[in-house]
Amino acid sequence: MPAVTTKFNEDDTLDMEMFEVNIKAQLDAGVSGIILGGTLGKASTLTGEEKQQLIRETVKMVAGAVPVIINIAEQTTKAAIEAARVAKECGARGLMILPPMRYKANDYETVTYVKAIANSTDLPIMIYNNPVDYGIEVTLDMFEEMLECKNIEAVKESTRDISNITRIKARFGDRLKVFTGVDTLGMESILMGADGWVAGLVCAFPAETCTIYELSKVGKMAEALEIYRWFLPILELDINPQLAQNIKMAEVATGIGTEHVRAPRLPLIGAERERVAKIISDGLAKRPNLPAYKGLSMA
Fold first, then answer.
1. What is the signed CA dihedral for 60, 66, 67, 70, rounded to 10 degrees?
2. 96: β partners
3. Which of 63, 173, 181, 237 is most buried (most C-beta within 10 Å)?
4. Phi/psi of residue 211, each to 5°?
5. Are 111 and 146 in contact (CB under 8 A)?
6. Is 129 exposed, middle or buried (0-12, 13-18, 19+ CB in 10 A)?
7. Mean pLDDT for the chain?
8. Would you indicate the residue range of the signal peptide (predicted)?
9. Residues of 242-262 as b/e, b for ≥16 C-beta within 10 angstroms?
């Protein structure tokens, strides 16, 4: 599932034309869902009206082919519950939930916050567990409490501790689906039993990401690894504070995005821009031919 970037025009309005170009590329590649308003989607800088527009128009674009999921990243429980209500009204088929923003809630507060949102809606929920970037880790004991809510079904596992996948699976089995949320651990996470991949560089390279995922899921490891080794230098652009700028540069290079970001983020300049541009251009120069990857089954 791509955590898609939000596209902007030069005047800072939403660029829905280029956004649709990107969504079409994702669907053509065979993604299984679209996630809006995550870290890459600039959840913290979008207005409520913009989020509604994104949900409604994305739902029209996908036309039922895959579920549209919106990230909930709010400062208050009241606002989060309202965001969940509006999401369903606009046609979203699932929610991804971050812990409270800005305030570093303790374990009890975080669990209470998530359960309040879950109990307010019947939409299925993925918990976004990213203590590296957001400062709050959802522990296994916290998940134990949260899973009293039947509609909490999955976790976007972004702790960067790959052994956490095994811990989650050992404790909860299939009750909690695990999606890796770190591009540089994508293939490794699938091999460790992750059910899916919420990806970032898929925004620029949808077919390559889907190929690695599909080959890995059916045990074609050598073929998947060859592509993954080519992809890794580009995937490392995802684990960086300027990941949105990096990935937007990659989207421009592959013809399915623009570089416009919302301030205070700004396009990269100077030596860092040159470094990222070289990684992308080197990757494109060696871009692999992809095998048929749709509809594969275990050998």
1. -70
2. 71, 126
3. 181
4. -65, -50
5. yes
6. buried
7. 96
8. none
9. bbbbbbbbbbebbebbbebbe
- DSSP structural state of residue 52: H
Please enumerate in sequence order all residues whose Cβ is within 8 A of that of 278, keeping only pairs 6 or more positions apart, or say none: none
Specify the amino acid at residue 260.
H
Q: What share of the chain is helix, strand, coil (3-state, %, to 5)?
A: 50, 10, 40
Residue with tokens 């421009």: 252
Supply the pTM of this predicted model: 0.95
User: What is the average pLDDT across 128-144?
Assistant: 95
Bridge partner list, 97: 72, 127
Q: What are phi and psi of 126, to 5 degrees?
A: -110, 130
What phi, psi does 199 have (nearest 5°)? -105, 160
Helix ranges, the chain (H): 16-29, 48-62, 77-90, 107-119, 131-134, 140-146, 163-172, 186-191, 206-217, 221-235, 243-253, 270-285
Q: Which distant-in-sequence residues (6+ apart) come within 8 Å of 158 by Cβ? A: 128, 129, 130, 132, 133, 180, 181, 182
Q: Kindly state the tokens that stand for 32.
A: 């299984």
